[in-house]
Amino acid sequence: MKGQTSVNTQAQNWRYWIALRMVRGVGNVTFRELLAQFASPQAVLSASFAALGAAGVHGEVARAIASFDQWEAVDSEIQKIAKHGVRLVTRADAEYPENLTHLHDPPPFLYLRGALVPEDRLAIAIVGSRFAGAYGRGVARDLACGLAEKGITVVSGLARGVDAEAHRAALDAKGRTIAVLGSGLDIIYPSEHRPLAAAIPPQGAVLSEFPLGSKPDAVHFPYRNRVISGLTLGTVVVEAAENSGSLITARFALEQNREVFAVPGAITSGRSKGPHKLIKDGAKLVENVEDILQEIAPALTMQMTGTVAPMPALAPHEAMLVDLFDQEPLHVDALIAGSGLTAARVLEVLLGLELQGLVTQLPGTHFALSGDKRGRGRK
């Protein structure tokens, strides 16, 4: 009876997360901003129109929240979750991936089969052509196996070709792997990968930000790709045409301040054009696992020793801006208002912090703290 009560309480909590995500006008960024203001989805949905407006919520969105009445649809989703043996991991859960919290638009929750563990912070994505040749499939297997043997979680998208080879190699090496879907977890795409999807949860996770029943529509895959890159320290592209979705994943990795790696191929092959373009644009050329490990060595060292790299001494204005950050990114206007400095001076200081690796610029002129600001020194 006690266990049943726990399940019911958990499902009740999920209702509010699902409901808020259903509200018209509440996307990932707005959801994050609402949590910063109200602490929980239940508090947001319980707030009056006036309270929402006072918190700066746009009028149309505030009206949609205050008048939300789609609870039957919410309960239907909860029933599907139970039926399909899926669970939610929300931003409020310790299991929520740390790497995703640094995104400008993190999913408020994930549908999950399997488990996410702290060690998954050390993850590398391996992506590439669905029509990979023998060379590309072999390289994907070798890299995934080598990473898994080093304790690195292998992330990919469960697609045909490179993705599937990476997942299988990680499993064969007894390592961890995470598959990110562009559909609901009840619709495995491609369908022939259902056995592979079923084999992953004991050694990792299959996850999606899309509700159950969501089809693998083309518009979903860019969102899927940003989660693939966002879960990781870097993305490796193995065989990809110039217009491949793998290059979208690589672009997201760059925007998220993650490493981009590319495997060279034959100059006569169209599948080499994508990786070669990335290399020309500055991606790290990868011939073996050691090339990847060299780039992520600092993160590996911190994980193994349990230490955090000390923050360098900061000048007064640098320390002032760093103090304004909490867990969420800030718009440059908020930094200007909070510091009392001129816009030009704030941008100058932010540039200096970026060069030190302490601050990351995000889309929409938002900035986020890259490291732990506690224990920093000052000049």
Structure, explained:
The chain is α/β, with parallel strands linked by helices and 379 residues long. It has 3 domains: 2-83, Orthogonal Bundle (DNA polymerase, domain 1); 114-304, 3-Layer(aba) Sandwich (Rossmann fold), CATH 3.40.50; 316-369, Winged helix-like DNA-binding domain superfamily/Winged helix DNA-binding domain (Arc Repressor Mutant, subunit A). It has 17 helices and 12 strands. The strands form 2 sheets. It has a 9-stranded mixed β-sheet, with helices on both faces. The chain has a 3-stranded antiparallel β-sheet with strand order 10-12-11. Strand 3 (123-128), helix 7 and strand 4 (153-156) form a beta-alpha-beta unit. Helix 1 packs across helix 6, helix 7 (134-149) runs parallel beside helix 8 and helix 10 crosses helix 11 (245-255).
Summary?
This protein is α/β, with parallel strands linked by helices. Helix content is about 45%, strand content about 15%.
What are its keywords?
single chain, 379 residues, alpha/beta, DNA polymerase, domain 1, Rossmann fold, Arc Repressor Mutant, subunit A, 9-stranded mixed beta sheet, 3-stranded antiparallel beta sheet, 17 helices, 12 strands, globular, disordered C terminus
- How does CATH name the architecture of the largest domain? 3-Layer(aba) Sandwich
How many helices? The count is 17
Tally of distinct domains: 3
The geometry reads as globular
What's the helix-strand series? HHHHHHEEEHEHEHEHEHEHEHHHEHHEE
Mean pLDDT: 88
Low confidence ranges: 1-7, 372-379
